Amino acid sequence: MRLLIDTDVLLDLALGRDPHVNAASTLIDWASANPGRCGVAWHSLANLHYLTKSGAEEFIRDMMEFVIVPPTGTHEMIQALSLGFSDLEDAMQVSAALLFDSQVLVTRNVKHYRKSPIKVMTPAELVPLLP
User: Fold this and answer.
1) How do 119-121 and 38-39 pair as beta strands?
2) What's the half-sphere exposure (Cβ side, CA atoms, 13 Å) at 79?
3) Of these four, 19, 62, 90, 105, which has the most CB atoms within 10 Å of its CB?
4) Residues 86-107: pLDDT tens digits?
């Protein structure tokens, strides 16, 4: 299973946000045990750093041991713009997920991804299904 992890899930873990931190932690533990099977969008890392400040660089550096950042560029931005999402950042997540050949985009904001061409699940929904 290949997954793209949305920024909100990373923030749940980095900031210890209850009640979501447990599912986010289990997902990241799975990612750590299965290197290369999870991706994060390039812009998610900047958002994570901006919103968390303290400790973000170490958290990001640790994740880079087992998480892939798909090499997005002009084509993927054009694709994101063509998806018809009201939130460009969400469309960028989908474009990165498509590039990474993700089977699931993992986010808590499922309703934001109604137009997603790939399956979208919350960490709480996904964790029981992980192999």
Assistant:
1) unpaired
2) 15
3) 105
4) 999 999 999 999 999 999 999 9
**CATH code (residue 56):** 3.40.50.1010
Instruction: Name the residue among 120, 72, 73 with its Cα closest to residue 100.
Output: 72
Burial-class residue 19 by CB neighbours within 10 Å (0-12, 13-18, 19+): exposed
Q: Which domain holds residue 118?
A: 3-129
Tokens standing for 52? 């968390």
- Residue 118 and residue 83: Cα distance in Å, rounded? 12
Which pTM was predicted? 0.95
